[in-house]
Design a protein that fits this description.
The complex is a heterodimer of chains A (398) and B (144). Chain A contains 13 helices and 15 strands. With 398 residues, chain A is α/β, with parallel strands linked by helices. Chain A folds into 2 domains: 26-285, Aspartate Aminotransferase, domain 2, CATH 3.40.640.10; 287-397, Aspartate Aminotransferase, domain 1, CATH 3.90.1150.10. In chain A, strands 2-8-7-6-5-3-4 form a 7-stranded mixed sheet, sandwiched between helices. In chain A, strands 11-12-15-14 form a 4-stranded antiparallel sheet, with helices on one face. In chain A, helix 1 packs antiparallel against helix 8 (270-286), helix 2 crosses helix 8 and helix 3 runs parallel beside helix 4 (117-126). Chain A is globular, with a radius of gyration of 22 Å. With 144 residues, chain B is α+β, with helices and mostly antiparallel strands. Chain B has helices at 3-15, 64-77, 82-96, 103-106, 122-126, 129-136; strands spanning 29-34, 41-49, 52-61. Chain B has a 3-stranded antiparallel sheet, with helices on one face. In chain B, strand 2 (41-49) and strand 3 (52-61) form a beta hairpin. In chain B, helix 1 (3-15) packs across helix 2 (64-77) and helix 3 (82-96) crosses helix 6 (129-136). The model of chain B has no long low-confidence stretch (mean pLDDT 90). Classes of the chains: A alpha/beta (398), B alpha+beta (144). Chain A binds chain B through residues 332-335, 338, 349-351, 353, 355, 364-365, 394-395, 397-398, and chain B through 6-7, 10-11, 37-41, 61-65, 67, 118, 120-121, 124.
Chain lengths: 398, 144
């Protein structure tokens, strides 16, 4: 649906790599161009008309994000470069000062690098201990396994809401409830969920939620960290400079502005934030429930049609997210991706930045199809046609 | 080279690569090559004895181009001394980079003569040769 809003689809292109990034509708592109063409000014400065307009639009996007993720307050919305920076801010801005050596952080082996490496670094710096919640035989997180992983030293559970390789939707509400009861911080990586389904930080009782703009038809270079107000107040910025302080003296004393402005050191990505606001309006107008339903239908359709193709191995038939991980038997995933590229079909090959999932999946590299609302059954049909012809793959790729 | 012959040689080396499987022998230099796109991951072992490459072995997971290039590299670099290996490597890289090269010297390696048409695969064709670079960076290996 809504394909006509995307200028890139004027040319033949079957884009199935939405887990990596998404295409941009004209309205988002226009919002960027409008800022650069008609009212460029810095944020939080000056008393002239354009700077005031920038301020209102920039700050207004926090309210749009609040609505999107059902946050209690717009001031809890921090702009970052993306999910990676958001998670780094949680780990090094907050957890570093709130965890002690021996404290345990629970993650899983299907987390993205950005929810693994910051914790590994903190493990080195601070002596915290990373533990992995075991995945079940379908590589999913079950409440039994979460319960069984808890110890008196468990201080944090940090997991993706939806994982980026197999697309399982985690039981975040139940995990959030458990965290509240046990006094455990609950950090949610929403990079693959916020763009695709209704997310409520209040229902999932999260302490922090991280996500990116570019995976939800927004610009690159901007993302969000939402956190509970009292936690953000105790979070140290990763970056210091102009715009985030109220005062500093040559004696070395300084004071920071309030949350969320204390996280806005330097000139923020103004055009991108405004573009993100436009993207949020756009997907909310379509409706997150509608997007989710459309993607699920596409996934069911693809799985059904893949049964017609011999030699295709699917690794995540039972997960609910809009992602299908597969290989053609005997063909390296990258060769499959290069083959599909000849037909203007874009898929991702590799380990998808989840390098420790191989321990669970028993396969290192896969091809990944990740849908968005603009994908169609006709595109799936074309993929199936090309895959059925894959016996000629080496005539094409070599 | 005829396109069908080229494809046959590449495919044959991909499906039945030479010297696949590592050995536990301290006499080998061990090199791990990771592609920037983080997919291809090969471990290559090279043994230099009396100034010549005596053996090369490899293992790992990689695409058809990288795997076949490793196999053909092994076939063509075993037995070479420092100067010969250096010269062959230079010719090969010149071919991949679309610079003048001597087809005669390259033997089967000419099967990648048209890889430039797929720029995203050049790095696959060059990947295993990082191992050759690494041993050439240390000429003393050839002096033992």
């Amino acid at each position: 649906m809504n394909r006509e809003d995307f200028p890139i689809f004027k040319e033949p292109l079957i884009y199935f790599d939405n887990g990596a990034t998404t295409m941009k509708p004209q309205c988002v592109i226009d919002a960027l161009v409008d800022y650069y063409s008609n009212y460029t000014a810095n944020a939080h400065r000056g008393d002239y008309d354009n700077s005031l307009k920038v301020d209102i639009l920039y700050e207004g996007v926090r309210g749009k994000v609040r609505q999107l993720i059902d946050a209690p307050d717009a001031s809890e919305v921090v702009f970052t470069k993306g999910t990676t920076e958001s998670l780094n801010l949680v780990v090094f801005g907050f957890m570093k000062d709130h965890l002690n050596p021996g404290d345990e952080v629970l993650i899983t082996k299907s987390e993205h690098a950005s929810n693994v490496l910051p914790w590994m670094e903190l493990e080195k710096e601070k002596g915290i201990v990373i533990k992995y919640i075991p995945l079940d035989e379908e590589n999913k997180v079950t409440m039994e396994n979460v319960q069984a992983s808890l110890s008196p030293r468990t201080k944090v559970i940090s997991i993706a809401h939806v994982t980026n390789v197999i697309g399982d939707i985690r039981p975040v509400q139940a995990i959030g409830q458990l965290c509240k009861e046990k006094g455990i911080y609950f950090v949610v990586d929403g990079a693959q969920s916020v763009p695709h389904m209704k997310v409520s930080v209040q229902e999932m009782k999260a302490d922090f939620l991280a996500f990116s703009g570019h995976k939800m038809v927004g610009p690159t270079g901007v993302g969000v960290l939402w956190g509970r107000k009292e936690l953000l107040e105790e979070t140290k910025p990763l970056c210091y400079g102009g715009g985030m302080n109220t005062t500093f003296e040559s004696t070395g004393e300084f004071e920071l502005k309030e949350v969320p402005t204390k996280f806005d050191a330097g000139t923020p990505p103004i055009a991108e934030v405004i573009g993100l606001g436009e993207a949020i309006d756009y997907i909310m107008a379509i409706g997150l429930d509608k997007i989710h339903a459309h993607e699920q239908e596409l996934k069911r359709y693809l799985l059904k049609r893949l049964e017609e193709v011999p030699k295709v191995i699917v690794y995540n038939k039972t997960t609910e997210g809009a992602i299908v991980a597969f290989n053609i038997e005997g063909v390296f995933s990258q060769d499959t991706a290069v083959y599909l590229n000849h037909y203007h079909i874009c898929v991702r090959a590799g380990n998808h930045c989840a390098k420790i999932l191989k321990d669970e999946l028993k396969v290192k590299n896969t091809c990944r199809i990740s849908f968005y609302f603009y994908n169609t059954k006709e595109e799936v049909d074309e993929l199936i046609r090309v895959l059925k012809d894959a016996e000629h793959i080496f005539d094409v790729v070599l | 080279m005829d396109a069908n012959l080229r494809r046959t040689i590449i495919l044959d080396n991909y499906q039945n690569p030479m010297h696949k499987g590592l050995v536990n022998d301290d006499g080998y230099i061990r090199i791990r090559t990771n592609n920037e796109s983080c997919i291809d991951d090969l471990t290559i072992l090279i043994k230099v004895v009396n100034g010549r490459i005596e053996d090369i072995r490899f293992d790992g997971e990689a695409c058809a181009i990288s795997t076949s290039a490793t196999s053909i590299m092994i076939r063509n670099f075993i037995g070479k001394n420092y100067e010969e290996a250096k010269s062959l490597l230079e010719q090969y890289e010149a071919m991949i980079d679309e610079k003048p090269y001597d087809e005669e010297k390259l033997n089967e390696l000419v099967v990648y003569e048209e890889i430039y048409k797929q720029p995203n695969r050049k790095k696959c064709a060059l990947l295993p040769f990082r191992a050759i670079h690494q041993i050439l960076d240390d000429p003393s290996l050839f002096e033992k």
